[in-house]
Structures are given as C-alpha cells and as structure tokens.
User: Fold these one by one.
Assistant:
Number 1:
Amino acid sequence: EVVLTQFPATLSLSPGERATLSCRASQSISSYLAWYQQKPGQAPRLLIYDASNRATGIPARFSGSGSGTDFTLTISSLEPEDFAVYYCQQRSNWPPLTFGGGTKVEIK
Amino acid sequence: EVQLLESGGGLVQRGGSLRLSCAASGFTFENFGMNWVRQAPGKGLEWVSVMSGSGGATYYADSVKGRFTISRDNSKNTLYLQMDSLRAEDTAVYYCAKSPTFIAAHLDSWGQGTLVTVSS
C-alpha cells in the first residue's frame, strides 16, 4: 500500500500570502496524484489531478507540481475562502486508493 | 451538472447492517467508475470501495473486505453499499464519489455524504 505523508500538518498564514503544501509518497507514483480541498461540513472538492492539471472551475492561483515521490500544492495568494483542509490522493498503485492525512491551512 | 445524493445512513447497533444508496444525475452513469469514501469524525479520508461502470469489477479496502458489498443499478443511476457486521470503527460520513474513467482514478465529483453511526 502506498502511504502518503502530508506536511506540515497545519499551516498558519494570512490572506494574500503564498501557501506551499507538501505530499510525499512511500514509493514512486509517477504523476498519479490528486489534491482536494475540504471545508468544514462539506464534501471534498477536486482541485488538481495527475499532479499538475487543474480541475474544471478551479482558480489559477492553485497549482500542483512534482512527480515520483514528492509533490507540492501551491496557492499563490490566499483568499479568505481558501482556508480549509487539503488532502492528497494517489491512484498509481491500487487498490487501495490512498489519501494523505491532510494539511490544515488556517488564518494566522 | 453532476449531482450525487447519498441516503440510508443512520444509527445501527454493532453487528447490524445498513444499506446506503447514491442517486446520480447529470452524466452517463454506466460509463464511469463509482466509489465509496468514508471519513470518521474529525479524521481524514479513507477509500472504501469502487465498482467499474459496467459493474463487472469491484475492489475493496482491507478494512471492509468480506463485510461490505458495493453494487450498482445502471437502469436507475444508483450506487449502493451494503454494510454488514458493522463495527464501531465503521462510524463515519460515507461519500459516494465519481471517477472520471471506467474504474478508479481521482475523484472528480462527490456527494454531500451520509452519516453512519455504529453504537457499541
């Protein structure tokens, strides 16, 4: 099973700042990594798939990069609505599909 | 617009059974893999199961294998999850989620979730 480790667990930033979230896989997963955003009481929403492709309707301030075992989600300038929990997920070696433990982006 | 609407959650005793449903609309249901993903209170996401678009292939997480059964009725655009021998650790919000392909991949649309509580 591919284990995904997200860090940091919590990121405290102010609106307008740049957010950099990391996801590390326990083995190479090529570019088969997705990122999701989840707000309290809501379902997750797909942001990025295959490491760097923005999903439909996702603003350009969200970008993804990486391949192999190390991946990054960058939010170029945080908007108030971006404060949420972010999860990564791999589809390279499945079953099972696996998720990281999440990074909470909170207001500083 | 893709819409996924789960139902069937509730309170059940340990060892009991429950069947969840997910009604889909806004896309050609039979062409896409459909998943169940759960989230225990205050915890992260855990993939549970996937069924291929045709229903010919199914996969499960080890934690539910032999206890949960995924199925679908493409004539009704509905996905199901039969949950038997429920345990306290199965307590979670259960989401159905659509793959953009015939089987598992990333998950491009999610329902709002239905809460399952297993009492001990």
Number 2:
Amino acid sequence: GENVEQHPSTLSVQEGDSAVIKCTYSDSASNYFPWYKQELGKRPQLIIDIRSNVGEKKDQRIAVTLNKTAKHFSLHITETQPEDSAVYFCAASPGFQKLVFGTGTRLLVSP
Amino acid sequence: DTAVSQTPKYLVTQMGNDKSIKCEQNLGHDTMYWYKQDSKKFLKIMFSYNNKELIINETVPNRFSPKSPDKAHLNLHINSLELGDSAVYFCASSQDSASQNIQYFGAGTRLSVL
C-alpha cells in the first residue's frame, strides 16, 4: 500500500524566513496531494492541494511543488509569521477517496 | 452551523467499558471517515463509508464497529476499551467525486482510557 514519509519532524525558523517541508510517496498511482495544518488542540484543515497533472501551485505565501518522477512533493511557506506555527501534514491519495498521511512536521516560528 | 460535528468532545472512561462517538455532517457529502491520532500526532485512517457502505477498513480490531444510519452520520462504537485506545478520534467527510477528495474534519474526540 501507499507509504508517505515526511521531513523534517520539527522545524524552527525566525519570523520572516522561509520554511520548506518535504514528503515522498511510494505508490505511483497516487494522484492527489493535499497539505493540512493542525494548530494545537484543533482539527486538521486543508491549506493547499495539488493534483498529479500540475507541477506547482501557489496561494499567497504558500506554494506546493510536485515531482511525479521522483515521487516527492514539498510545501513552501515564505515570510513566515508566528501564526504559521502548527503541525503540518502532507498526504497522498492512492485510490478512491483514501488519504495516507505523512507523520507530520511541527513548525515553530519565533518572533 | 458546524460542517462536521462530533460528540462528545472529551471522553474519560475505565478499561473494559463500551463507548460510542457520534459524527454528523451537513455538507451533503457522500463519504465519511474515522481517523485515529495518537500521542505522537500520527493521523491514521480507520474506516471509510460511502453512502452508508463500508469501503475502507484498515485492519482495525473487531472491538471497533462503525455504523452509518444514513450518509450524514457515521458513529463509532468501541467495545472493551483498552489503554491503547487512548487517542484523539477525528471524523471527516468528503464529496464523492473522482476530482475532489478534500476532506473536512470534525473537532475531534479526545478519548482517555484509565
């Protein structure tokens, strides 16, 4: 079955710096890759997603890139702010309606 | 007006007890899910139902039994609770579409088994 690896497990940056989180997946049939943000004690919420027919997608300070050949995708956050501090999860969809999540990255943005 | 709502928010119980968690979505979605998030924050799918039919069952012990009375509800019943069942359980839902798999999560139920 699909296996998603996510790195790093923790990431500390200064406010205004960029943050990059990387994920790899194993199942070449996976065609949908969302990213979720989970603040402390809250529910996971979708922040951006990308489909396999697209190489890059941007939404303001957040961008996601996908390399299907290498089976990896990354989340880029520019000009980080303290409110970006949270756990971020990548996921891959290997089949109908199923998501396999990565192990999460705890991002801490220091003022 | 919450899109995916689950109850209770907190559940503290003794080992060996039976408990249920309820989930309801008002988004008109066809598919609902149960996830378990352990203390290390790993988020793992347990079950998925599409229009009241089970489509994913990820080798979850038989003590866990999901029930979907209609496509807007997916409840989770747990028998003979064990210490290892302590976790946050999230319900989620998504639209039934080949091009859409955005999953919307409930606020979670924090289960503590003593």
Number 3:
Amino acid sequence: DAGVIQSPRHEVTEMGQEVTLRCKPISGHNSLFWYRQTMMRGLELLIYFNNNVPIDDSGMPEDRFSAKMPNASFSTLKIQPSEPRDSAVYFCASSPYRAGGELFFGEGSRLTVL
Amino acid sequence: QKEVEQDPGPLSVPEGAIVSLNCTYSNSAFQYFMWYRQYSRKGPELLMYTYSSGNKEDGRFTAQVDKSSKYISLFIRDSQPSDSATYLCAMMRDMSNAGNMLTFGGGTRLMVKP
C-alpha cells in the first residue's frame, strides 16, 4: 500500500495568495483528518471527515481555511488568502476506524508564507 | 493548562541507555493511550497503543499507564541511534463515537548518541 499521499511536499508563497493542499488517503479508510504542526502549538486538528462528510471543523482557525472531500480518495485543504502565520507543516491522516485512534499520516506539506 | 502535557526535551542519552518518556493529562475520561514516533521531516507513526491502566510490551518498548495518577510512560530499553525521533503521546475517550478525537501531547525530542 502506498500510504497517505500528500502534495505538494513544499510550498512557498506570498501573503495573500491562495494555497491548496491535497491528500489521497489509504484506500478503504473511512476517516480523514487534517492537522497542522508548529513548534509553538504542536499538532492541532483542523478538520475531520467520516465517509466524506465533515464531522468536526471546530479546529479550522478562521474562514480563510476551507476543506473538501469530494470522494473517498481525495481531499483538499485551501487557505485563501494566506498569511505568514499560516506557515506550518500540514498533515493529512486517514484511519480505518470511525473515531480515529490509529492514524496513518502522510509525510506532510511544508507551507511557508512570506 | 493544556489537557496533555509533555516535556519537549531534547533528551540526549548514550546508546544502550534506558529511556523514559512521560506524559501527564487532566481529563479522567481518557481510556485509550497511544505513543506516536515522528522522525525528522516525516509524519507521525503509531508505535504503541494501550487501553486503560497497565503495561504493554513490544520488543524494546514498554508502555505504562497509571490512570490514578493521570500519568503515562514509554520506556525504551537498549536505546539505539535509530530511536532518535520525537515521541508524541496521544489519548482519547473511546473508539465508538466519531466525535471523540485524539488529543496529542507536544512531543519529546529524543537523541540517542552512538
């Protein structure tokens, strides 16, 4: 199995630009999670999908952030407009379990907003 | 106060040493306890998983949970340079409800020197 695939691995953009991060979960996994990791705040859950339906988006920091899961094999996290404080590593994870627990993480997308 | 506290380290030990990594938590409802290992520039991967109190051993790794003290530990015997990574504890209330999310500690960076 290829594991969770994220793209791009690195993104450098300027403040105000739109950023789209992509994720392909492991086939057969029903749950998908987007996390953000920074030195200051550690791993923060942004949003969680179960069977392609958003269950909890309370971690999305503000309206500039949006996430979609149009089908079981693809999800996007969009930031529009981006700001320097959005600089972080964004991880996508999938799980075969409804409530998560055992998460399989991708290698992350490192975002730098100048 | 964070719900899950973990000393960020770094913790530096010589090869062959016994390593003790710890987390404290405040929510007595947590029942599932996990340790994730994260190598530099990679996503976290599940290392150990325990339910409720007690010990669990897997090779050189032992996970210990003391619910009465709200304290969990991960012991690594005969530590190797390849164990150098950040170790994150994580916990959740139950597996049955989609609304229950994993709560992560901030991670402890471990360095094992040859």
